[in-house]
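Memo to structure team: turn this sequence into structure tokens by end of day. - J.P.
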Amino acid sequence: MIIEVLKSKLHRARVTQAELNYVGSITIDEDLLDAANIIPNEKVQIVNNNNGARFETYTIAGERGSGTICLNGATARLAQVGDIVIIMSYAYMEAEEARQYQPILIFPDGDNKLIK
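Reply from structure team:
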């Protein structure tokens, strides 16, 4: 049996921009993408801790080291600059593999920088 499990999570990232007049997606600092093993164009689920909104979109790589978390297009209506979000990606695995898999959990600081 194939099941869907949490692959990676950016926990409590801060929204730095919201661009309504854009084609869509979420732009994420490439350092954060790499750390979480999320690739450009990968589908992600986003949870806004400030207002409870839950939505899905795809990722775009932002400038490395910038701390960018930018909601683009319609998703810009679901968060404001400064909101705290959780960004999650999922993977399909055989149940046995999923039992052994440990998701990658990234906890950026208040400026969306990697904590070393």
